[in-house]
Amino acid sequence: MTALYWQTIGEGERDLVLLHGWGLNAEVWGCMLARLTPHFRLHLVDLPGYGRSQGFGAMPLEQMAEKVLAAAPPQAWWLGWSLGGLVASQAALLQPQRVLGLITVASSPCFTAQDDWPGIRPEVLSGFQHQLSQDFQRTVERFLALQTLGTESARQDARQLKAVVLSQPTPTVEVLNGGLEILRTADLRKPLAQLTLPLLRIYGYLDGLVPRKVAELLDAGWPHSASAIVPKAAHAPFISHPDEFASMVESFIQAHDSGRGSAQ
């Protein structure tokens, strides 16, 4: 049976599941380990078909969330970046009793731009899907470059992301297309409006993939959630601003755990 790559490290009493974005793998959290392991027991997973979780085909969002839930601790905080934010959100919708709280990073419940909703133009995502079959490596590199555009450390950050991709087995074109299809079609705005778990949404001010206007719209539509915008960050705020990011995560979880204590 095909198994997910799963690594658990850290000294803290609270479990925190970390989910990476499209095209990448769990190594993307490398810059966070020293900052978060003193406070949490981190669960690093390669999503199905990505990195070391080989042998999976493309799958819809709900199935991907079910696969991760099957391997996850009985109760944990979940943090998802970009596509991983959708997977973490879907996990919370499927089994809210197992998710203590949710943190999404540079993510949107609906990545595709619509009449009243800012996001990625559908033709851009369709274009990436088409280009994948033509020139796999160049398409992935272009997508990574888009994620760091505008930051002071853009070139260095893009190199770091590329190194993460190259450090592990690359996903198949089928799996990558499946991920883009999720980004193109998923819309969790209405179901997530009903979710009452602690929810923090972290954005990059310069993000070209998830416009900061999304933060304002969800502040109004999801008053139960909180948002934070990292001023000089783009789509990967934990890479460009690791200390600020770690502090946001730690403070939010601590604030919501203080009332509960650390007992499961």
UniProtKB/TrEMBL annotation:
<feature type="active site">
    <location>
        <position position="235"/>
    </location>
</feature>
<keyword id="KW-0719">Serine esterase</keyword>
<keyword id="KW-0378">Hydrolase</keyword>
<dbReference type="InterPro" id="IPR010076">
    <property type="entry name" value="BioH"/>
</dbReference>
<feature type="binding site">
    <location>
        <begin position="82"/>
        <end position="83"/>
    </location>
    <ligand>
        <name>substrate</name>
    </ligand>
</feature>
<feature type="domain" description="AB hydrolase-1">
    <location>
        <begin position="16"/>
        <end position="242"/>
    </location>
</feature>
<keyword id="KW-0093">Biotin biosynthesis</keyword>
<dbReference type="Pfam" id="PF00561">
    <property type="entry name" value="Abhydrolase_1"/>
</dbReference>
<feature type="active site">
    <location>
        <position position="207"/>
    </location>
</feature>
<protein>
    <recommendedName>
        <fullName>Pimeloyl-[acyl-carrier protein] methyl ester esterase</fullName>
        <ecNumber>3.1.1.85</ecNumber>
    </recommendedName>
</protein>
<feature type="active site" description="Nucleophile">
    <location>
        <position position="82"/>
    </location>
</feature>
<dbReference type="GO" id="GO:0090499">
    <property type="term" value="F:pimelyl-[acyl-carrier protein] methyl ester esterase activity"/>
</dbReference>
<feature type="binding site">
    <location>
        <position position="22"/>
    </location>
    <ligand>
        <name>substrate</name>
    </ligand>
</feature>
<comment type="function">
    <text>The physiological role of BioH is to remove the methyl group introduced by BioC when the pimeloyl moiety is complete. It allows to synthesize pimeloyl-ACP via the fatty acid synthetic pathway through the hydrolysis of the ester bonds of pimeloyl-ACP esters.</text>
</comment>
<dbReference type="InterPro" id="IPR050228">
    <property type="entry name" value="Carboxylesterase_BioH"/>
</dbReference>
<dbReference type="InterPro" id="IPR000073">
    <property type="entry name" value="AB_hydrolase_1"/>
</dbReference>
<comment type="similarity">
    <text>Belongs to the AB hydrolase superfamily. Carboxylesterase BioH family.</text>
</comment>
<feature type="binding site">
    <location>
        <begin position="143"/>
        <end position="147"/>
    </location>
    <ligand>
        <name>substrate</name>
    </ligand>
</feature>
<comment type="subunit">
    <text>Monomer.</text>
</comment>
<feature type="binding site">
    <location>
        <position position="235"/>
    </location>
    <ligand>
        <name>substrate</name>
    </ligand>
</feature>
<dbReference type="InterPro" id="IPR029058">
    <property type="entry name" value="AB_hydrolase_fold"/>
</dbReference>
<keyword id="KW-0963">Cytoplasm</keyword>
<comment type="pathway">
    <text>Cofactor biosynthesis; biotin biosynthesis.</text>
</comment>
